[in-house]
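Memo to structure team: turn this sequence into structure tokens by end of day. - J.P.
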Amino acid sequence: MAVAVYNGTAVGGVGACSTELPQNGVLTHGHLAENSNHGGDPTGLPDARLLPGVAPLDPIGIKDYQYEQGDLYAGGSAANPPKIDPGQTLTYLNHDAAQSVNAFHTITACRAPCNRSTGIAYPIANGPTPFDSRQLGYNYAGFGAPAAGRDTWTTPKNLKPGTYTFFCRVHPFMRGSFRVTQGG
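Reply from structure team:
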């Protein structure tokens, strides 16, 4: 089993469940501090469920690592979740997918309020998610990047009323929200 892959080529290693782990070599470091950060600490970000909803833009842009509407880091009215009626959809457009930037972003559901600090265990997608855009972008570099091959994503039509929070799996500091409500 390949443990590492570089440029489409397995570069060796042993499986995570192997009982034949090499015991020779030099220990290069002890426990790393970043591995003690499991996340989930308060950040001061708002709880999207308590923010007023706003009429959505069409599409809602993602640019410079921010969601154009519903971005919890944006503050002010830009943090307010766009709202739609049940059965309607929102479309997100990753402007950072342009070849000059070539940044992938996702819209991946996470349990509300999804406003805590990142770490090796947070945020998590909480198992089966109601939505995940996959990595919006293109494989401009030509080395098999895990891009979805598109720069837009539309929310599912079957979402029940409520406030939905999400994060970017590639850049977990990116947090956003939208709301499905009667009378959108």
